[in-house]
Specification:
Blueprint (H helix, E strand, L loop, with lengths): L7 H10 L7 E5 L12 E2 L9 E2 L3 E4 L13 E4 L4 E4 L11 E4 L3 E4 L2 E4 L9 E2 L10 E3 L7 H9 L4 E5 L3 E6 L4 E2 L11 E2 L2 H11 L3 E4 L7 H10 L5 E5 L16 E5 L3 E2 L5 E5 L2 E6 L3 H19 L8 E6 L10 E9 L2 E4 L9 H4 L3 E5 L11 E6 L2
Parallel strand pairs: 13-16, 13-17, 14-15, 17-21, 19-23, 22-24
Antiparallel strand pairs: 1-12, 2-11, 3-10, 4-6, 4-7, 5-9, 8-9, 18-20, 20-21, 22-26, 23-24, 23-25, 25-26
Helix pairs in contact: 1-5, 3-5
């Protein structure tokens, strides 16, 4: 039996206390900065644009010379002296202060008829209008997006400082596991997929994953694998987390904080530390591992990586009742169809297709005995 079952939220809070955001900095190239988090403010070295430029196609003019221009009584400007053809983005010629749009003009031989009175700076983008020199472009802690990268490129900033990605070691354990690129599994064996799933999620959530080779069910070998990974910021042990004869993962930790959660699926999950590094022991069943990844590993990686925000959610209406185990947080997979959430009936912790066919999950709190059909629910979307 598990010594004592604990709330998954209590376990999450304890885990996050050991997950200190990574403060080590490194330089990164602009074209490789997507998703990275700035470790310093970025200050603009130039004005953007660096010169006054036309915001419209038309004619560069002196605004005072267009006074009174209207469709019935245009102002007449001499082409080449009072009106200079100009295209969007071109510099405003010296001595001119506005742009007459092409739509508000008509050229007749060497004259331009101005059908509008343009005021000073009309249709002109001033130097520094987008970004002024010395201003803060992006602040420390900002996660880089494509538009941010384009802006820095326009400013000529091609290298800058970011926080190092949190390093997450993933150690699959189990004598029954075979590598994905190995021979077909024999009866009683299974392909090792939990480690791959964990690696992909860690990378999606802002970490740098290091997937180790399969470790047999041997406490000394598991501890050696932990020692080899002690330089990482977070360690994930996959498999061997329950209370069977060969479930050695929790006992290999220096400090076991929680073993056994009021969570279904995912009850055998454990968390603790090794060499002062936070460790999450993921259950061997793949759906149970997925649950632990979302509810524990995701917030841990996000915190290490200086990232905020929970899973993306939408509101939906349950098409069928969700049954739950009283006293446990239930992780129910659902598929979405318009505004309806359909619970997936294959709920076993080993039924991986139930996750692959799901669009997200609904969490049923410990104090409820299921959720009724027709009720409004919050669906956490799978990323």
């Amino acid at each position: 039996m598990f010594r004592e079952l604990s709330s998954v939220y209590e376990a999450e809070r304890a885990l996050l206390e050991f997950c200190r955001p990574v403060t080590i900095e490194e330089e990164v190239d602009l074209d490789r900065s997507i998703g990275r988090v700035l470790s310093r403010d970025i200050i603009s070295p130039i004005d953007l644009p660096s010169f006054d430029r036309a915001a419209m196609d038309g004619y560069a003019v002196r605004s005072a010379e267009t006074v009174g221009g209207n469709p019935l009584s245009p102002a007449y400007l001499e082409l080449g002296r009072q009106a200079l053809p100009i295209r969007t983005g071109a510099p405003i010629p010296v001595g001119f202060d506005a742009v007459l749009m092409k739509e508000d003009s008509l050229m007749r031989e060497d004259l331009v008829e101005a059908f509008a009175h343009v005021h000073p700076s009309r249709n002109v983008a001033r130097a520094g209008e987008d970004v002024s020199i010395g201003s803060t472009v992006l602040s420390k802690g900002h996660r880089m997006r494509p538009a941010d990268i384009a802006l820095l490129g326009a400013l000529g900033i091609i290298r800058f400082n970011v926080f190092r990605l949190p390093r997450v070691a993933i150690i699959p354990t189990g004598g029954e596991l075979v590598p994905l690129d190995g021979a077909s599994p024999l009866p009683g064996q299974a392909r090792e997929v939990n480690g791959l799933m964990a690696r992909l999620y860690v990378e999606m959530w802002g970490g740098e994953a290091r997937l180790e080779g399969i470790v047999p069910d041997d406490p000394e070998l598991i501890r050696s694998a932990l020692e080899a990974s002690a330089g990482c910021d977070l360690i994930l042990l996959s498999g061997g987390t329950s209370i069977g004869d060969k479930d050695y993962a929790p006992g290999a930790l220096d400090r076991l904080l929680y073993h056994g959660l009021l969570l279904t699926p995912g009850k055998p999950t454990a968390i603790g530390t090794f060499a002062d590094r936070p460790v999450v022991c993921l259950p061997g069943y793949p759906v149970a591992a997925l649950v632990a990844l979302y509810l524990l590993v995701r917030p841990a990686v996000k915190r290490l990586a200086h990232l905020q925000g929970g899973t993306p959610t939408i509101k939906a209406t349950l098409s069928r009742k969700i049954a739950s185990r009283p006293g446990y947080t239930t992780f129910s997979r659902v598929s979405l169809d318009g505004g309806l959430a359909h619970p997936i009936m294959s709920t076993g912790a080993g039924i991986l297709s139930s996750a692959a066919h799901a669009d997200g999950f609904v969490l049923v709190p410990e104090d409820l005995e299921g959720l009724d059909a027709g009720g409004a629910v919050e669906v956490h979307l799978f990323e």
